[in-house]
Amino acid sequence: MTSTSPSGSPAPRDSANARSRKIVLGVAGGVAAYKACHIVRGFTERGHSVRVVPTESALNFVGAATFEALSGQHVSTGVFDRVHEVQHVRVGQEADLVVIAPATADLMARLAAGRADDLLTATCLVASCPVVVAPAMHTEMWNHRATRANVATLRDRGVTVLEPAHGRLTGPDTGAGRLPDPEQIVALSLLRLAGRDLPQDLSGRRVLITAGGTRESIDPVRYLGNHSSGRQGFALAEVAAQRGAEVTLIAGATDELPIPCGAEVIRISSARELAKEIDCRAADQDIIIMAAAVADYRPTVTAPAKLKKTSESAPTGIELTENPDILAGLIAARREGRVPEDTVIVGFAAETGDDSGSVLDHAIRKIRRKGCDLLMCNDVGSGKVFGRSRNRGWLITPDGSVVEVPDGTKLEVASLLLDSVVQITAER
C-alpha cells in the first residue's frame, strides 16, 4: 500500500513530492479564479514547477502578471503565442499533472466535445498524464442535464472531476457548485499524482464516518479529552465523497479543517452524544467507519459550576464511569437486525505496546472481541499520528490477517482503506 499528503501545515514534503513534477494549472473564467493563486502557491511550496494556462476570460478576473509572479513562468492563452515552441503540443506533452481550477460549465463542455480552440483545451487533448478538474458554477448550472452529461463523459475518459463544495456562491446565492478549498484541490490532485485514483465505485452508497475526539465535561470549563485532530476521519469523508458516496460525517473535537465536499457534517461533543447520533442513523447506512477517538470514561458527576481549587468543593479526585462501547453496540445491533446485516462496519484502534503485548497484539485481540469487518490499527505512541498530516499502520481482518499500511498522507491512507471496504462490499 502507498501514500501522499492532505493537511493544513505549510509546505509538506510528501511521497508524491520526492522530486519536482511539472504541473499545468488551467484556470477558467469564473469569479473563483482568484483562488487559483493559492493553488499555485500550494504546489510550488511543495517543490513543484507550475505552468499556469488560463483561458482568455480568466484574465478578466486575475491578470497574467499575477500568475507569472507566483509561478515564475510565462503565461499564454492562445495557440498562436510562441508558435516556434509549439506550445499547444509541448505544454501537454511535458506535464506530469494537469489541474483545472476553477472549471466552468463552458470549459467542461468544450473539454467533453474535444475542442482545441485555445491553449488550455489543446493542452488537455495532448496530455497523457492525470487530469483533475475542479468545477465551480451556480447550482443550477452544476445540476443541469447537459453539465451532468459532460461530467459523465469526462469521467468515462479517465478525467478526475471533483465534486464541488456546498456554500456561498456569487451574490446572495448558496448551494452546491462552490470551488473546493485550495488546499483540498492541491491534496486531492497530489493523490492522483501519486497514482491513487478516485473512481466512482461508492456511487449510491451511504457512508457514515466519525472523526475527532470526544470531550467529557468535568465542569462548564474543564473536560477529559484526547489528542485526536480528526484529520484521518475528515480525509476518509473527503475521499468517500469524491468516490461518489453520500457521506455523513459526525465530528467531535477536531482541528480547523475544510469541510469535505458534499458531506453532511454533524457536530457532537461527548461519547454519549456520538452514540445517540449513530443510533439515529446506523440503520440507513451501507458503510460505517468509526474513526473517532472516543473517550472510554467520563466523570460520574459533572459539576454545574466551575470547581475552585481554593474552595471546599475543590476535587481531590474524579470518579469515572465507563462510556458505552459504541462499536460493540453497532455490532450487536447488526446481529439483532436493527442494522442491516450487509452493512460494512470498520473500527479503529489507537494502540501503544506494553508488557501484555505489542500494538498489533492488542489490535488483533480487539477485532476478535468487537467483531467488526475491518480494523485500522495505529501506533500512537510518542506523538505519532494524532495531529499529524501523515499516518501509517495496519489493516486487520476478523481472521487475524494483517496488511501493512506504509507511511503516507492521511488522504492516501483513506484511499487505501476505502479500497478494502469496496472489496468487502463487492463480496457480500
UniProtKB/TrEMBL annotation:
Pathway: Cofactor biosynthesis; coenzyme A biosynthesis; CoA from (R)-pantothenate: step 3/5; Cofactor biosynthesis; coenzyme A biosynthesis; CoA from (R)-pantothenate: step 2/5. It comes from the Bacteria. Coiled coil: none annotated. InterPro entries: CoaB-like_sf, CoaBC, DNA/pantothenate-metab_flavo_C, Flavin_trans-like, Flavoprotein. Its cofactor is Mg(2+); FMN. The keyword Amino-acid biosynthesis does not apply. Residues 22-187 form the Flavoprotein domain. Its EC number is 4.1.1.36, 6.3.2.5. It catalyses: N-[(R)-4-phosphopantothenoyl]-L-cysteine + H(+) = (R)-4'-phosphopantetheine + CO2; (R)-4'-phosphopantothenate + L-cysteine + CTP = N-[(R)-4-phosphopantothenoyl]-L-cysteine + CMP + diphosphate + H(+). Residues 202-423 form the DNA/pantothenate metabolism flavoprotein C-terminal domain. Pfam families: DFP, Flavoprotein. Residues 1-206 are annotated as: Phosphopantothenoylcysteine decarboxylase. One of its GO terms (molecular function) is phosphopantothenoylcysteine decarboxylase activity. Residues 207-428 are annotated as: Phosphopantothenate--cysteine ligase. Keywords: Decarboxylase, Flavoprotein, FMN, Ligase, Lyase, Magnesium, Metal-binding, Multifunctional enzyme. CTP binds at D296, K306, P324, D325, I326, L327, F348, K366, K370. PANTHER family: HOMO-OLIGOMERIC FLAVIN CONTAINING CYS DECARBOXYLASE FAMILY, PHOSPHOPANTOTHENOYLCYSTEINE DECARBOXYLASE. Catalyzes two steps in the biosynthesis of coenzyme A. In the first step cysteine is conjugated to 4'-phosphopantothenate to form 4-phosphopantothenoylcysteine, in the latter compound is decarboxylated to form 4'-phosphopantotheine. Catalyzes two sequential steps in the biosynthesis of coenzyme A. In the first step cysteine is conjugated to 4'-phosphopantothenate to form 4-phosphopantothenoylcysteine. In the second step the latter compound is decarboxylated to form 4'-phosphopantotheine. In the C-terminal section; belongs to the PPC synthetase family. This is Coenzyme A biosynthesis bifunctional protein CoaBC. It comes from Corynebacterium marambiense. The lineage of its organism: Bacteria, Bacillati, Actinomycetota, Actinomycetes, Mycobacteriales.
